[in-house]
Amino acid sequence: MRDRPVPVTVLVTGLIFCGLLLPCPVAAQNAGKVENLEVENLEVEKLRETVEKLERTVMELKDRILLLEKERAGSSTSAPEPAPKAPALPADSLIRDANTVGDQQSAAPRPDNVPLDPALAGFIAIPGTQSMIKLGGYARVDAIRDFGNAGNPNWFVPASIPVETDPASSESSRFALHAKATRMSLEFRRPLATSDRLRIYYENDFFGDSSSPGMSFRVRHYYGQAWNILVGQTFSAFMNIDSWPDTVDYEVTNALANKRQPQLRYTQPLSRQGERRQSVFFSLEQPGSEVDVKAAGLPADTKTLQRMPDYVVGYRFEKKGLHVQLSALGRSIGIESPAGGDRSVFGWGLNLSGSAEILDRDKLSFQLLYGEGVARYLNDLGGQNLDAGLDASGNLEAIPVFGPVLGYTHNWSGMWRSTASYGYIKVDPVASLAASAIRTTLYASLNLIFQPTKAFRLGLEYLYGRRENQGGARGDASRLNFVVKYDLVK
To answer: Which among 61, 155, 222, 342 is least buried, having the fewest CB atoms inside 10 angstroms?
Structure first.
C-alpha cells in the first residue's frame, strides 16, 4: 500500500511548533549589571541556524508530496469519463413577473425551469447539499361589499348570481371579510448532473370551501420538473397564466381557462437563447366528464365515465415584452348505466392567448377560446355540468362554448396602477339543457392598486357581473372588493 502524503499545512505547522519548543534565548540580566552581548549574539546565531534547517525540511517535504501526486496520477488505469454534454440553459426568462395581486406567475412551470428572477432572491442553500429552498407566500385579507346578492360571497362568480325568477335576487346588500386567499409556498431547486435543473414546487391556500367564511385548507400546486418532464398537480397546459389580468378579485375573469389538476407533461424548447424563444409541449391530464346525469331521457342510475386522459398539445413564442401561446385540448366525455349502456363523445378546444407590453408602462392581455365539451376548464362553468348533454335524438353531444377575455393595465406611477378586465361566456344549447342552465355570463372589473413597497399593497376594485339562463331569465350584481396584502418574500 502506498504511503498517504501528509498535508503540507500540517507538516509546516508541526515543525514550526516543534521549533517554538526549542530553548529560546533569554538574556540573563542581573540588577545593576550590563548585559552580556557576546552570549546574546551566540544565542541568536544558533536560533537562525535552527530556522534555516526547518525551512530546508519543509522544502524537502513539499518535493516529496509533489512526487507522490505524480505517481498517483500516472498509476490511474482509466481516465474519468467526460460529463454529459447538455444544451446551454438560459439564465432568466423573457417573461417579466407582472407582480400581480394574485401572484399566479411564480407557481407556473417554465421550459428548462428558467426562473423569473435570475438572482433567485429569497433562496437559502441547504447545508451539505447542492439544493436550495425558498419559503414564500403572503398574508391577505379581503373586505367585500355587495350591492345585493352576488351569489358567492368570497369571490366574484357571475355563474352564481341569482336570476330574476329566484327570490334570492331581491335580497339586500351585504358585507363579508375573510382571509381565505392567504397562501404559503415552498420551492426547491438544485442542479442536475447533465447541467439541467430540478424544481419541486408546493403551494396551498384556504379556499377548500369557497362559499364559507372559514379557512379550509386546499393544495393548489405540488409538482416536480426535471429534463422538462413535469409530474404532479399544477396549472393545465391548456391555460396560460401569463395572460391573466391583474384583478383584486381572487377568482379572476369569468371566461379564463383555469384548471389545476394532476398531469404528466413534456416540454421541448425549440430555441433557448437569444431574443426570441419557442417551445412545444404535450400533456396528459386528469379527466373529468361533467354531465347532468339527472337530465330527462337518462336512466336514474346514470353516472359519468372517463375512458382516457385529457390531452393537450401546444406552441409558445416569447420575446421581451410579448408572448403568444396556442393550446389544443382533446378529451373523451362519457356516461354509463346498467340499463342504458355506455355513451361517449369527443370534446375539443382551442385557446389562443398572450400579452404585450405597450410603451413600457402598459400591458395588454387577451384570451380567445372556443371548443365543444370544454366547459369544465372555464372559470365560470366548472362544476355546472355543461361538458355535454343529449340532443333531440337522445345522443350525447358536446356542448359548444365561446370565451373571450381582455385585460389592460396602466401604471400611473411607480406606486399606482389600474387594470380593467372584461370576460364573456356563451354556451350554445342542446335539447337536454334545462331552462335554468347557463346561457351567457359577463364579467367586468376596474381597480386601483397602491404598492409603496415590493411586499405591501392595497387594492380597491369595482366588479359587475351578469348571468342569463337558457330560459331567458337574467340577473346581475355589483361588488366592491378591498384587499390588504403582505408578501413574505419579495
So the answer is: 342
Q: Please tell me whether residues 62 and 114 are part of one structural domain.
A: no
* Burial category of 365 from C-beta neighbours within 10 Å (exposed 0-12, middle 13-18, buried 19 and up): buried
Q: How far is CA 83 from CA 86, 272, 308, 473, in A?
A: 9, 21, 40, 68
- pLDDT value, residue 48: 74
Whether residue 63 contacts residue 172, with contact meaning beta carbons closer than 8 Å, is answered with no
Provide the total of helices (H) and of strands (E) in the chain, helices listed first: 2, 21
Residue 336, amino acid: E
Cell of 478: 355589483
C-alpha distances in angstroms, 57 versus 9, 23, 36, 54, 62?
13, 19, 33, 5, 9
Using CB atoms within 10 A of its CB, is residue 229 exposed (0-12), middle (13-18) or buried (19+)? Answer: exposed
Kindly state whether residue 34 falls inside one of the protein's structural domains.
no
Residue 84 placed within a domain: no
Whether 403 contacts 424, CB under 8 Å: yes
Could you give the CA distance from residue 169 to residue 305 in angstroms, rounded to a whole number?
35
Structure confidence by residue, pLDDT tens digits, 246-261: 999 999 999 999 999 9
Does 314 reside within a domain? yes
CB-facing half-sphere around the CA of 267: CA atoms within 13 A: 24
Band (90; pLDDT cuts 50, 70, 90): confident
Residues forming beta bridges with residue 365, ordered by sequence position:
355, 407
Positive or negative, the Cα torsion across 261, 262, 268, 269? positive
- Statement to judge: residues 306 and 260 lie in one domain: yes
CA 72, 77, 83, 85: dihedral to nearest 10 degrees? 140
Which CATH number covers residue 371?
2.40.160.10
- Asked if 65 and 164 sit in the same domain, the reply is no
Confidence of residue 273 (pLDDT cuts 50, 70, 90): confident
| Rounded CA separation 229/271 (Å) | 17
Q: Which three cell numbers stand for residue 262?
A: 394532476
User: What is the mean predicted confidence (pLDDT) over 337-358?
Assistant: 94
- Structural domain of 57: 1-26+39-69
124 shares a domain with 51: no
Alpha carbons 446 and 253: distance in angstroms, whole number: 11
What does each C-alpha distance from 105 to 108, 131, 172, 347 come to in angstroms?
Answer: 5, 22, 37, 28
For residues 43 and 135, membership in a common domain is answered with no
DSSP code at position 21: H
Specify whether 251 is located in the same domain as 177: yes
